[in-house]
Amino acid sequence: MPDTVEIGLGRSARRAYHLDEIALVPTRRTRGSSVVSTVWQIDAHNFALPLVAAPSDAVVSPDTAVEIERLGGLAVLDGEGLWTRYDDAAAELSALDYDTATLQRVYAKPVSPDLLRRRVNELRASGVRVAVRLSPQHTAELAPHVLAEGVDLLVIQGTVISAEHVADNETAGLNLKTFIADLDVPVLVGGCANYQTALHLMRTGAAGVIIGYGAHLGSTTHAALGIDVPMATALVDAAAARRDYLDETGGRYVHLVAYGDLSTGGDIAKALACGADAVMLGDALAAAANAPGHGHYWDATAAHPRVPRAVVTDHGIPAGERPSLEELLVGPTSDPTGERNLFGALRRVMGKCGYSTVKEFQKAELIVQETR
């Protein structure tokens, strides 16, 4: 039975858990890191790491996309970010004042379909897998430009997404099921937070579902909208939806990508143990020396023209001391906080818990603990 508590006369609420409220339990058998595989495959695409770099201008540029793929992950370019609004986006980023009003101003410039096409071509010419994020509100308008130039994976992502986006303007609405049915490329959709929404999104034909809205230190979505995603519970619920959908379809597997409250190797490990196939990282990568945000992080919600729901965070690391993306992702590192060599830590904990692959690791034993 679900763990529920009574919050008043005649009204109960379900108890849910964040990742910092659970812990992993090692088994009787351990494995060396050298025999542990973190390989992740979605559709026909294989990656050495179960990593999707979040579509934030602070993290992903055409240049960093190349480095992220070299290290084993998948970088997602924001199709509605500065790279598709400004010809010299790097100059805009270098001159940026990191406050909400400035972000709203620079993101007020319309997306250029020609620039969007050019960025897709730049990514393809660099030899990386091309993944582009569009919001549900603008997918119908911008997706034809992205698809015409050829993408390997399309990401349709908002704070909260449903199988059908309804708008006042009938042409702006988006029915994901009919939209995805006409595509030849895999689609990753999200975010969502519960069993029912995850199941509905799986039934659209999506190859993967994003769980969470990217909560990080600068997020104010909980304060502004009252929405929160206890990631451990949300992932376990979505994994249950995936099992039911697997039975319903006779074997169609949908990938789960955790997005939010992920800053250490331990967070990543617990997200995978709760059922995720991969994690989407944003703030955790912003400290890299070559990140386009120069040590700062923000997501698309920070520049919302009417209801901004995040502030810019600053990692506070002097320019000459910022780690490389390689140190952050695969090490080695001399930093003991767990915020660097994220996937080296994942390999180690998988070995200590006795699992060789991510799929096996999803069966790891979990316990509930007091928040520290």
User: What proportion strand?
Assistant: 15-25%
CATH architectural name: Alpha-Beta Barrel
Query: How many angstroms separate the termini?
Result: 27 Å
Largest sheet: 8 strands, parallel, barrel
**CATH fold node name:** TIM Barrel
**Based on CA inertia axes, which overall geometry fits?**
globular
Mean pLDDT: 93
The main sheet orders its strands as 6-7-8-9-12-13-14-15
Q: Report the radius of gyration as a whole number of Å.
A: 20 Å
What is the SS-derived class? alpha/beta
Oligomer: single chain
Determine the fraction of residues in helical runs and give it as a percent range: 25-40%
Helical element count? 13
Under CATH at level 1, the class stands as Alpha Beta
Stretches with pLDDT under 50, minimum 5 residues? none
Number of strand segments? 18
Find the CATH superfamily: Aldolase class I
What is the total number of structural domains?
1
Structure description:
The chain has a single domain, classed as Aldolase class I (TIM Barrel), CATH 3.20.20.70. The chain is built from 13 helices and 18 strands. 30% of the residues lie in helices and 19% in strands. The strands form 6 sheets. The protein has an 8-stranded parallel beta barrel, surrounded by 5 helices. The model has no long low-confidence stretch (mean pLDDT 93). Helix 1 (62-70) links the parallel strand 6 and strand 7 (74-78). By secondary structure, it is α/β, with parallel strands linked by helices.
